Amino acid sequence: MPAEPITLCPLDQCPPGEIHAIDAWIDGEVQSLLIWRDGTTLQAFLNICPHAGRRLDYAPGKFLLQDQRLICAAHGAAFRLSDGSCVSGPCRGQNLQAIAIRLIDGMLCLPCSD
Asked: Is this prediction's pTM over 0.70?
């Protein structure tokens, strides 16, 4: 029997223009995710800077945003939230690790794993 999608949170917990942090069970361990909602577009990434493997938030669930860019609290790298690419800082040219999410009946979910 195929696995069911994993429910993360209701969509209304992710206001447009803000980053919402949530912990999820991915690949056998709990991972911190950040979810960005811009109008009808949803993006999810691991909450890990590719430069040094540290969390991007300056306190749990608190992120630095500037012009729809996420700023790494540890090293100041700037990531475009539309695609996770680093546009300035020590990891320029690298990307945040995207995580697939789906909207199902008003809930954000991780898709089924096969």
From this structure: yes
- Inside any domain, residue 85: no
Taking only the tens of pLDDT, the chain with its 114 residues reads 347 888 999 999 999 999 999 999 888 899 999 999 988 889 999 999 998 889 999 999 999 999 989 999 999 999 999 999 999 999 988 999 999 999 999 999 998 765
CA neighbours closer than 13 Å in the CB half-sphere of residue 101: 26
- Tell me the residue range of the domain where 50 lies: 6-63+97-110
Q: What distance in Å separates the CA atoms of residue 16 and residue 23, rounded to the nearest whole number?
A: 19
Total number of domains constituting the chain: 1
| Residue 89 is assigned to a structural domain of this protein | no
Helices (H) and strands (E) in the chain, counts: 0, 10
